[in-house]
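Study this fold:
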Amino acid sequence: MENKEVMYHIGLSKKDIKGAKYAILPGDPGRVPKIAACLDDAVKIGQNREYTSYLGKIEDEYVLVMSTGMGGPSTAIAVEELAQIGLENLIRVGTCGGMQLDVSAGDLVIAQAAIRQEGTSKEYVPIEYPAVADFDLTASLREAATELGFTFHTGVVQCKDSFYGQHSPERMPVSYELENKWNAWIKAGALCSEMETASLYIVSSVLRLKAAAILSTVWNQEREKLGMPQETNLDVDKEIIVTIKALTNIIKKEAKNE
């Protein structure tokens, strides 16, 4: 499947992205048009399987918006094929569930690193290798979130393969492992749980790409367990605004240095 003009899974070629170096990567295909609407001159350029793609501009620089689908395998495929057509900087814009009690619904989480409890990244490098974000992209997201005055947390996120293994661990035959590890991650300071960032960071590291992730907290099951104020928040506007501002700042700085 390598060295093909049109990538087998994402359905895009180098010609389609017009030299774009930056990609915004939501998991949900339904969020792609919403993000693309924040770009200039955005047009739909592809749709295949879970991969919906739009191309637009920020400060006259082409930026790709493409969904990755849910979980590590589809995310890894996306990163592999984006690398082949020339993308260099990837920012995941996703959702998560809070783990620390101060990570409330609606808060943003900027993922400095990810716990590799999923399986995809283990087929790239041994488990001892850390899944870490690019420093500059992460700093840009933090700077943008600070400038906008949004509540955010920066730190480690937990990545898994089974959504229901997190939410109903007691009914799984391996409940003893799931529950013990979940409590360990919380004690160690993991901020939230999601499914894609570890694969994004590991594959990007192997392919020498830059990657970062910003997540919107949908709920916090630990707050719910304790009877603390708890809600569900499906609004992803803030993380989109932060990402667009961060990329605008980066592109402006690059233009000044040219």
In short: The longest strand covers residues 210-220. The chain has nine helices and ten strands. The chain has a mean pLDDT of 96.
